[in-house]
Design brief:
Layout: H1 4-17, H2 22-29, H3 35-38, H4 46-56, H5 60-64, E1 92-103, E2 108-109, E3 116-122, E4 132-137, E5 150-155, E6 164-169, E7 172-178, E8 182-184, E9 193-194, E10 201-211
Parallel strand pairs: 1-4
Antiparallel strand pairs: 1-3, 2-7, 4-5, 5-10, 6-7, 6-10, 7-8, 8-9
């Protein structure tokens, strides 16, 4: 069980050792000034934890207390970055990869507390603007996205008509194109999902590309 207050202790300790001002870190990573205060009562979101690990030049495992060496993941993999780095100039970035799949078919469950793995990816192309990665299941978005593809998502509560996004409808998640009151599949074998006034619909983000995962 991870403890948010223990994470706060490690963040303060590492920031002090590296002579990093927490207010500068929160400003440059786009996190709120109340981030440390919030850690007293609740766990940080996965992407926020990754941002802090990036800035502090350490592994997420270290902040979670899974290992005691800031430069090493629990598995033994090296997480260190070049000395004197600045987060926004890093060639690589840590990104949450949610193993819970999003459906290109009839729907799957996507929850905030599902298992997440942090992966180190090149900060190039669409990945530079992405916030997390999801895996696609199903064939309803072929020929653009195929079963097993890993898609890059940019968080957004709204996207424009005709764009492809991740949506949660009545608890099930989908990767679909947004239309006029409906979610559209690119595969003509699938009927559009009509959205009704009484449906619980939430846009999670915009799909901005794919990425190859090992």
């Amino acid at each position: 069980m991870y403890c948010s207050s223990d994470i706060a202790v490690r963040i303060k300790k590492l920031a002090k050792e590296k002579k990093i001002l927490l207010k500068d870190m929160f400003e440059k990573t786009g996190l709120g000034r109340n981030t440390m205060a919030n850690l007293k009562t609740s766990m940080p979101k996965a992407d926020n934890l990754a941002k802090m690990a990036d800035y502090l030049d350490c592994s997420v495992d270290y902040l979670l207390g899974r290992c005691d060496n800031p430069s090493v993941n629990r598995s033994g993999g090296i997480a260190a970055k070049p000395a004197g780095f600045t987060s926004s100039f890093l060639p690589n970035k840590l990104m949450p990869f949610y193993r819970t799949t999003t459906s290109a078919g009839n729907g799957s469950v996507l929850l905030d507390y599902t298992f997440v793995e942090y992966v180190n990816i090149d900060r190039t192309g669409a990945a530079a603007s992405a916030d997390f990665i999801l895996e696609v299941r199903g064939d309803s978005m072929e020929p653009r996205f195929f079963d097993g593809d890993c898609v890059l998502i940019q968080r957004s509560a709204r996207i424009h008509e005709g764009e492809i996004g991740i949506f949660i409808v009545n608890g099930d998640s989908y990767i679909k194109k947004i239309g006029n009151g409906r979610l559209i599949s690119l595969n003509p074998a699938y009927e559009p999902i009509m959205l009704h006034e009484y449906d619980d619909v939430r846009c999670v983000g915009k799909v901005i590309g794919t990425i190859k995962m090992d």
